[in-house]
Design brief:
Chain A: It comes from Rhodobium orientis. The structure holds 2 protein chains of 2 kinds. Chain A is of the alpha+beta class. Chain A has 14 helices and 12 strands. By secondary structure, chain B is of the alpha+beta class. Chain B has a single domain, classed as Beta-grasp domain (Ubiquitin-like (UB roll)). Chain B contains 3 helices and 5 strands, in the order E-E-H-E-H-H-E-E. The chains are: A alpha+beta, B alpha+beta. The complex binds protoporphyrin IX containing FE.
C-alpha cells in the first residue's frame, strides 16, 4: 500500500516521486503519519488558498504547530483580524520600501565572501547563506549586535520535527521557547524606547484604538524572526544547490546576471524550501470522492503543486527560461508570504555577489544531509568546491 | 464556467474561462496574459495586478476594502475611478462576460 511519510529522512531528501503518486492516484489522500488529508494538485491547492472561509489557518499553519501560536500570528489567524495585523507590517515589506536594504545587503554579502578569502571549498550554509540572512534580518529589525549565532541556531531548530516520534521533540520546543523569550525581551526594550524599525512600529501599533494583545505581539515577533531567518537562509541554500547541479543555468547567469531573477522564480517553483503547510476545515467538504469532516486538517503541498504536470509542462526540468508565473513557492492568497519581496531582493544580491566570486563550483560528496522537517526542505550543510 | 476578457495595453484580447472563486489575477497569470504581474501572490500587498474594469461591471463588483484602497494609491499607472486590483476580485456567475483592460506598466 502507498504511504506518504513527511517525517521520514527519505522524504526530506527527495519527496518528488511520492508527490507524483499523490497527484496521479490519491489527490485527496489521508496521511496516517501526519493525521491529516493531503492536497497535492495545483488546482486543489489554489482552490483551498482562495477559500480561507473553509480552509482556515486559525488552528495553525505549520504541519506540526508550535504551542500557543495558533490564533496569534499572521500565518495563524483568518481575516478580518489577519488583514488588520498584516496591514501593520505590509507597507514596510513592499519592493519599493525595501530599496533601502539593497546597498547594505550588498555590503554584507561582500563581507562574508571576503572572509572566505578565495578558499576553494566551504560550507555554503554555515559560511554564507545563514551569515548573510542573519545580518540582514538583524539590520531590518534593528536587533542587538550580540547573540546572532544563537538566534540562527534556534530559528533553524524550531522548524524541525523528529523523524522517529513524528512530532516536535523537546529540543525543538526548547528552541521555540528560547525564541519566544528572546522576542519578549526585545519587545520590552522597544516598548521603553521605540525606534523607527519595523518591530517598533508593530509593537506600538493600535487597531481601532486598541493596542495588540501581548501574546499577539510576542508570537508575531517570534514568527517574524523564525520565518525570516530559517526561510531565507533555507532558500538561498536551495538556490545554490540547484546552481551547483545545473551547470548550464549557472553559466548563463554568470554570463548575464540580469537572468538571476528568472532563476530565482524557477527555483521557487522547482524546489521551494517551504514545501508543506496546513489548514483546518470549517465545514465538511467532499473532494475527489473523499468526505472530509469539519475540524480535519489538510496539508497543502506547495512543492507538489509546483511540479504538477497539469499546470507546468515538463515540471521536473529546471528551466530558467520558463518564467513560472503563478508558482506556489511563496504560497498564495491572503496568506502569501509576507517576506516575498525581501527574499527576492536579498537572493538576487546574494547571487550577483556570489557568482561574481565563484562562477564555477560543484557539490562535494555524494550525499546531502537535509533538515528534518515536516514543513521545510533545505540542506543542513552544503559543501561546495570552486573549480 | 464564467468568462472574463482581458485586453492588454497593446490591444491583444484573451478570453478566459475562470473557475468560480479564482481571482482575476490568477486567471491572467495562468493563461498567458502578460499585463499582470501579481508579485505578492494575492495578499493585496503590491499593486502589480492593477486593472481597469469595464464601466458596465463596476457596480457589480465587491466594494473596495481599506487595504485595496491603500494599495491602489501605489499603482504605477494612473489610478482611475474604475481601477481595481485583480487579486481582490473573485469570479462569480454574476460576473460572467466581465471585460478588464490592463495598464501599460505594473512596476
Ligand atoms: C525564500 C524565502 C521564503 C520562502 C520560500 C517563504 C515561504 C512562505 C510560504 C510558503 C508562506 C505561506 C504559509 C502558509 O500558506 O500558511 C509564507 C508565509 C509567511 N512568510 Fe515567508 N518565506 C520566505 C521568506 C520569508 C521572510 C524573509 C520573511 C520575514 C521577514 C517571511 C515571513 C512570512 C510571514 C510573516 C508569513 C505569514 C504571512 C501571512 O499568513 O499573512 N518569509 N512564507
Amino acid at each position: 500500500m502507498f504511504r506518504f511519510d513527511p517525517y521520514s529522512p527519505a522524504n526530506d531528501a527527495d519527496p518528488f516521486d511520492a508527490y507524483k503518486t499523490l497527484r496521479d492516484e490519491y489527490p485527496a489522500f489521508w496521511c496516517e503519519e501526519a493525521g491529516m488529508w493531503v492536497y497535492s494538485r495545483y488546482d486543489d491547492i489554489i482552490a483551498a488558498l482562495n477559500d480561507w472561509q473553509t480552509y482556515s489557518s486559525a488552528k495553525g499553519n505549520l504541519v506540526d504547530e508550535l504551542p500557543n501560536r495558533a490564533g496569534a500570528t499572521l500565518g495563524t489567524t483568518d481575516p478580518p483580524r489577519h488583514d488588520r495585523l498584516r496591514a501593520l507590517i505590509q507597507k514596510a515589506m513592499t519592493k519599493r520600501a525595501l530599496d533601502v536594504i539593497v546597498e547594505p545587503t550588498r555590503g554584507m554579502c561582500k563581507k562574508h565572501l571576503d572572509a572566505l578569502d578565495g578558499r576553494k571549498s566551504f560550507d555554503f550554509v554555515a559560511e554564507y547563506s545563514s551569515k548573510v540572512t542573519v545580518d540582514l534580518l538583524f539590520d531590518l529589525f534593528a536587533m542587538p549586535e550580540s547573540g546572532r549565532q544563537t538566534v540562527r541556531d534556534n530559528a533553524v531548530l524550531m522548524v524541525q520535527t523528529d523523524p522517529v516520534t513524528r512530532q516536535k521533540g523537546p529540543e525543538h520546543i526548547g528552541a521555540y521557547e528560547w525564541m519566544a523569550k528572546y522576542a519578549n525581551e526585545l519587545i520590552a526594550e522597544r516598548k521603553k524606547a521605540p525606534g523607527e524599525d519595523l518591530l517598533s512600529n508593530f509593537i506600538t501599533a493600535e487597531i481601532d484604538g486598541e493596542s495588540l494583545a501581548d501574546r499577539e505581539i510576542q508570537m508575531t515577533v517570534t514568527t517574524l524572526i523564525m520565518a525570516g531567518v530559517e526561510s531565507l537562509s533555507g532558500f538561498l541554500s536551495m538556490m545554490a544547490y540547484n546552481l551547483a547541479e545545473q551547470h548550464d543555468a549557472r553559466r548563463a547567469l554568470v554570463a548575464d546576471p540580469s537572468l538571476i531573477p528568472d532563476a530565482i522564480e524557477e527555483s521557487l517553483r522547482f524546489n521551494t524550501s517551504a514545501q508543506r503547510f496546513r489548514r483546518c476545515l470549517t465545514r465538511d467538504v467532499e473532494n475527489h470522492g473523499q468526505i472530509m469532516k469539519e475540524g480535519d486538517f489538510i496539508m497543502l503541498v506547495y512543492g507538489s503543486g509546483n511540479r504538477d504536470e497539469r499546470r507546468f509542462a515538463n515540471p521536473d526540468v529546471f528551466d530558467i527560461a520558463r518564467k513560472p508565473r503563478g508558482h506556489l513557492g511563496f504560497g498564495g492568497g491572503v496568506h502569501a508570504c509576507l517576506g516575498g519581496a525581501l527574499a527576492r531582493v536579498a537572493t538576487k544580491i546574494a547571487f550577483e555577489e556570489f557568482l561574481g566570486r565563484y562562477p564555477e563550483f560543484e557539490r562535494v560528496g555524494e550525499t546531502t544531509k537535509w533538515v528534518p522537517s515536516s514543513n521545510f526542505r533545505s540542506p543542513m550543510k552544503l559543501d561546495l568546491a570552486a573549480a | 464556467m464564467p468568462k472574463v476578457t482581458y485586453i492588454e495595453h497593446d490591444g491583444r484580447r484573451f478570453e478566459v474561462d475562470l473557475p468560480e472563486g479564482w481571482s482575476l489575477m490568477q486567471g491572467a497569470l495562468l493563461n498567458g496574459v502578460t499585463g499582470i504581474e501579481g508579485e505578492c501572490g494575492g495578499s493585496c500587498g503590491c499593486a502589480t495586478c492593477h486593472l481597469y474594469v469595464d464601466e458596465a461591471f463596476v457596480d457589480r463588483l465587491p466594494e473596495i476594502a481599506e487595504a485595496e484602497d491603500e494599495m491602489l494609491d501605489c499603482t504605477v499607472a494612473q489610478r482611475e475611478a474604475n481601477s481595481r486590483l485583480g487579486c481582490q476580485i473573485k469570479m462569480t456567475p454574476d460576473l460572467d462576460g466581465l471585460v478588464v483592460r490592463l495598464p501599460e506598466e505594473q512596476s
